[in-house]
């Protein structure tokens, strides 16, 4: 299936969801507040324009990316703010329903409704939601545009040689270089990563949202992270929307080594030296694009007595991974939910959302660390899920 078809399907679903959200916002912010005619027409027009701007911007980013970038930040900010508004208004509606139910149970139901009271409550709900949402969006924007935090995690890895105790992996995930994250932000992330002095750097997908022609300069700072055991990369789903083959070739030219259903040994390169295996597979969404994750290929012929770390963009497949001897899987993709309470929806799709977990499967066990990511997708807002660069410190189990 081509990128064009995937984009068309995504846009169709996106437009339908947007329509529903913006109708609800209109109903609560315009219809229920009894605004005078000119205000009502103006706000209605602005909501229609805001809803249309989102899919139109996504299309424009594919057709004329440089021109569309000027619009991307405010349009994507509205996407995040509209979600926060939706949640705030829904919480208000739920509170009203609970209050009405309690009143009915108390024997006060059936009374004629007071139009003035209804108008007051509608305006109070709308005004409160706007104030709360604005404050949350401002705080979330400050978090998203600031420096990613350093999240240090100690992981006891089975079969890791004592000589490699303290071996450090810096994990960068979900940088999303593109319309709203450019060279300046990527350089800042690279500098913070370099300051950790890791033994190796791993990039677990969703590095880019755009073509090599548009973004090669933006990601160039990642070519010199200075890790003695190299920088390693696996694809995320967004690479396949951006021209994966072109990006893999470009990353290799930068000196970033791609693990395309492959495995390498890290540690002492000498005969009989202390080492562990680092494997990586293509993203789970890569099948329609001619790739596909293949753990069998990545692990073919490996020494089962050697410690094993797996890079996989999405936090999936842990059952098979631990059965195959994976002691630690490093993933991203979830953004930790990015904007609370979206993390609850993410948790419905993925059992592991952010942080370090242990997975037990048919007598075997392993661990998975899910990064919240160093960047953001879409809205330049992170609320309750700050961006991070993970410093993974390996120790023998």
From TrEMBL:
<keyword id="KW-0812">Transmembrane</keyword>
<keyword id="KW-0378">Hydrolase</keyword>
<feature type="transmembrane region" description="Helical">
    <location>
        <begin position="7"/>
        <end position="27"/>
    </location>
</feature>
<protein>
    <submittedName>
        <fullName>Metallophosphatase</fullName>
    </submittedName>
</protein>
<feature type="transmembrane region" description="Helical">
    <location>
        <begin position="39"/>
        <end position="59"/>
    </location>
</feature>
<feature type="domain" description="Calcineurin-like phosphoesterase">
    <location>
        <begin position="168"/>
        <end position="336"/>
    </location>
</feature>
<dbReference type="Pfam" id="PF00149">
    <property type="entry name" value="Metallophos"/>
</dbReference>
<feature type="transmembrane region" description="Helical">
    <location>
        <begin position="71"/>
        <end position="91"/>
    </location>
</feature>
<dbReference type="InterPro" id="IPR004843">
    <property type="entry name" value="Calcineurin-like_PHP"/>
</dbReference>
<keyword id="KW-0479">Metal-binding</keyword>
<dbReference type="InterPro" id="IPR051158">
    <property type="entry name" value="Metallophosphoesterase_sf"/>
</dbReference>
<dbReference type="InterPro" id="IPR029052">
    <property type="entry name" value="Metallo-depent_PP-like"/>
</dbReference>
<keyword id="KW-1133">Transmembrane helix</keyword>
<keyword id="KW-0472">Membrane</keyword>
């Amino acid at each position: 299936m081509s990128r064009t078809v995937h984009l068309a399907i995504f846009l169709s679903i996106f437009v339908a969801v947007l329509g529903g959200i913006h109708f609800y916002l209109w109903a609560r912010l315009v219809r229920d507040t009894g605004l005078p005619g000119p205000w009502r027409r103006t706000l209605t027009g602005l909501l229609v324009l805001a809803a249309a701007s989102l899919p139109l911007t996504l299309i424009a980013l594919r057709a004329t990316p440089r021109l569309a970038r000027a619009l991307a930040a405010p349009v994507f900010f509205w996407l995040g703010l509209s979600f926060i508004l939706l949640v705030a208004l829904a919480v208000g509606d739920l509170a009203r329903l609970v209050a009405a139910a309690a009143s009915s149970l108390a024997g006060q139901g059936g009374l004629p409704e007071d139009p003035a009271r209804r108008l007051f409550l509608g305006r109070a709900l709308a005004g409160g939601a706007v104030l709360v949402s604005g404050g949350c969006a401002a705080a979330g924007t400050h978090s998203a545009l600031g420096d990613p935090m350093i999240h240090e995690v100690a992981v006891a890895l089975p079969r890791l040689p004592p000589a490699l105790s303290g071996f450090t992996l810096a994990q960068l995930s979900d940088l999303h270089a593109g319309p709203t994250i450019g060279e300046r932000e990527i350089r800042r992330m690279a500098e913070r990563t370099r300051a950790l002095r890791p033994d190796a750097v791993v990039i677990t997908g969703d590095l880019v949202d755009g073509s090599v022609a548009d973004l090669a300069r933006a990601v160039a700072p990642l070519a010199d992270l200075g890790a003695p055991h190299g920088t390693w990369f696996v694809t995320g789903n967004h690479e396949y929307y951006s021209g994966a083959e072109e990006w893999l070739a470009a990353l290799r030219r930068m000196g970033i080594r791609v693990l395309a259903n492959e495995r390498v040994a890290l540690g002492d390169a000498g005969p009989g030296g202390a080492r562990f295996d680092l494997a990586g597979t293509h993203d789970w969404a890569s099948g329609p694009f001619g790739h596909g994750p293949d753990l069998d290929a990545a692990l073919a012929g490996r020494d089962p007595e050697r410690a094993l770390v797996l890079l996989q963009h999405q936090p999936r497949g842990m059952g098979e991974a631990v059965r195959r001897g994976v002691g630690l899987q490093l993933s991203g993709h979830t953004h930790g939910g990015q904007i609370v309470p979206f993390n609850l929806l993410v948790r419905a799709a993925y059992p592991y959302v952010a942080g370090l977990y242990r997975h037990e499967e048919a007598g075997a066990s392993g661990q998975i660390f899910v990064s919240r990511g160093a960047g953001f997708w879409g809205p330049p807002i992170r609320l309750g899920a700050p961006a991070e660069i993970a410093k993974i410190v390996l120790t023998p189990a």
